[in-house]
Amino acid sequence: MAKKLKIAIYSGNIPSTTFIEQLISSVSQHHQVLLFGRKTKKYQVPKNKLQKTNSKSVFSKGKHSGEVNETLEKERESVIREYAYGTSTFQNILLTSIRTLLLAIRFPKRLKTLFTQIRKQGSIYKKRQAWFKITPILLYLPDIFHIQWAKETEQWLFLQALGVKVVVSLRGAHINYSPIANKTLANSYERIFPKVDAFHAVSEAIAKEVQKYVIGQEKIHVIHSLLPENTFDLFTLPKEKDSKHINILSVGRHHWKKGFTTALDACKLLKDEGVSFTYTIIAGGIVLEELLVQRHELGLLKEVQFKISLPQQEVFQSMKNSDVLLLPSYEEGIANVVLEAMAMGLPVISTDCGGMEEVVISLETGWIVPTLDSEEIAKSLRSYLNVSDKIKRVMISNARKLVLEKFDAVKNGALFLEMYHHIMQSRK
Q1: What contacts 182, CB < 8 A, 6 or more positions away?
Q2: pLDDT tens digit sequence for 188-230
Q3: I need a labelling partner for 352 at 20 to 30 A (CA). Which of 42, 162, 203, 238 fits?
Q4: In whole angstroms, what separates CA 380 from the centre of its chain?
Q5: Inter-axis angle of helices 289-297 and 260-272, to 10 degrees?
Q6: Cα separation of 352 and 329, whole Å?
Q7: What is the pLDDT at residue 41?
Q8: Is the peptide bond before 228 cis (omega within 30 degrees of 0)?
């Protein structure tokens, strides 16, 4: 039987996004998963029934000491082991002091690495944060450190000197447009990416982007996102509608790359043609002032509404209440919300940015339009209104079949395991 590995899936926050959490769940069925980073809210770590401990509490009294003890107990008991630091500075100092002491006792040579990395930081605050972040990683050193956001790669390459394999996921913005907007970042990628042991790309389009910085394709593994099985359980075929009113939905975050300005221009074209519609944008963060001004100037106050970030179940409910999902983005990897819509039976109109053409095939699984083209978006929305219910059902069925085949959690989870085993074999 293959040796169980210790794999750190690192996003910096615990818990992470839905798709990263799905990766954690999948990998933990075969290997031990280590979670490092800042704990932002309550996180239920699955219990490992095969691992039990009779270890007694480190502390017996005190509010903060009790919280620290609970954290240490979770570290021992779970198949998914959580080595977090929280929002309380006092608790973090106490917990990290214990971890530093344990590090000095068990692995004294790694203390030098810890102090070296802390000294690289500028302010006292940054040094303290580095202490919180790095200490547990050096104490519970993984076999593989899988970084989920490419911009953070450089700060973790020092782990390779300790025998840790470093994997980097490439999902969209960090490789698509950030290096174009930030020349310093691009130069950093040119310098450090050749040192990375393996890359995970969410699409073929993303894989092409990383080839600009990496010589040889053997390091690049294209693995589509793991779509949670319960998403497919939400599938429903749309009901026949007598009304010609269309409910349009976009889900994302308030950022220029999401293309909401182009979408509003398309809405103006629809209104001028007398099309009845409602356009809802569910997005995290403060609504951009330019969008509010644009909505006012285009006379779309009644038709366009903005909603702040909602819990996942409420987003799914909004998707169920909508007629079509619009992705007007300028850059994406493969947008998770589009995959969710296709799994649920919600028709999709998407721009051809990033890897979107790999899933949205025009008039087969949805409508694909050029980026920055409001007229084509409006045209596709009119096409949605005019196409027969029979054709819509065929497109919805095709879309669901595609995501079932390409984004199956079990199949794609196995591909991650193959990647991990491949890079561990390269060590030999």
Answers
A1: none
A2: 999 999 999 999 999 999 999 888 887 678 899 999 999 888 8
A3: 238
A4: 28
A5: 10
A6: 9
A7: 77
A8: no
